Amino acid sequence: GTKVTIVKDGLRSSEGPIAMPDGSTLFTEPGASLVHKIDKSAAITTFLENTIRANGLALDSKGRLIAATALTIEVLYPKGSEKVLAKMPTRPNDLVVDKKDGIYFTLPSNKPPVVYYIPAGGQAAIVGEVESPHGVQLSPDEKTLYIGNSNGEHLIAFDVQPDGKLTNKRNLGRYEGVKKTATGAESHADGIAVDGEGRVYVGTEPGVQVFSKSGQYLGTIPTSQRPQNLACAGPDKKTLYLTGGSAFFKVQMLAQGYLGRPK
């Protein structure tokens, strides 16, 4: 019964929330090419400008802020460290950084739609195909990679190999309340978060659907707008921040986000 509340409305789209080490939270406004910051007192300020329509965000072990922009994966912050890590033919959507500073990211508009991996200091390479890959997330032990398939009925999972490659693609959990069409299922599955117990939170058309790490459906957090991305953040990582449409939302949680990684 905990209410989902609006933190800010009137945005030109909202995306990419991520927890920062100081307890603040960042999120992107792709339509305005901005990154915003919510500090521990809940004040919202502009953190970065001219971000080339940055969407998903991630942090590496050096504290560099990495973004999926209009046609690149690149370092946006801190000032002086800006660098293009990969150029893409179509727009990347979301990304996550592993403990080795390797970067997984999704390319939903590619033909075929694919998942990429950039090993630390290496070149981007395709490691998997998914019908419509959007959100991407690692399990706390980084042995499983989750993908939000926007056109499917299921949360997609891969096993992660030591070199970052992916194997054993499978349907992990089935979404509830998804509309079926002649061409598939309109789950609009997108951003993904994990908590300290390994539960998986997926933004879908009905709201945020929650699964156990084995794929059992646990429930849905209903939202007034379709959540496009989400993150456990705030000073104690017990706030679930949600982006979607023109608004930025939050809901207080009993569960705590995974503390071993910013995202």
Features:
single chain, 263 residues, mainly beta, 4-stranded antiparallel sheet, 26 strands, 49% strand, globular
How far apart lie the N and C ends? 26 Å
Alpha plus pi helix count: 0
Strand order of the biggest β-sheet: 1-26-25-24
H-E order: EEEEEEEEEEEEEEEEEEEEEEEEEE
Broad shape = globular
Average pLDDT level: 95
Largest sheet: 4 strands, antiparallel
* Rg: 17 Å
What is the structural class? Answer: mainly beta
Helical proportion, percent range? under 10%
Strand content: over 45%
Number of distinct beta strands: 26
Low-confidence stretches: none
Which helices and strands occur, and which strands form pairs?
Elements: E1 5-8, E2 15-19, E3 25-29, E4 34-38, E5 44-48, E6 57-59, E7 65-68, E8 72-77, E9 83-87, E10 95-97, E11 103-107, E12 114-118, E13 125-129, E14 133-138, E15 144-149, E16 154-160, E17 166-174, E18 179-181, E19 184-186, E20 192-194, E21 200-204, E22 207-211, E23 217-222, E24 229-233, E25 239-244, E26 247-252
Antiparallel strand pairs: 1-26, 2-3, 3-4, 4-5, 6-7, 7-8, 8-9, 10-11, 11-12, 12-13, 14-15, 15-16, 16-17, 18-19, 20-21, 21-22, 22-23, 24-25, 25-26
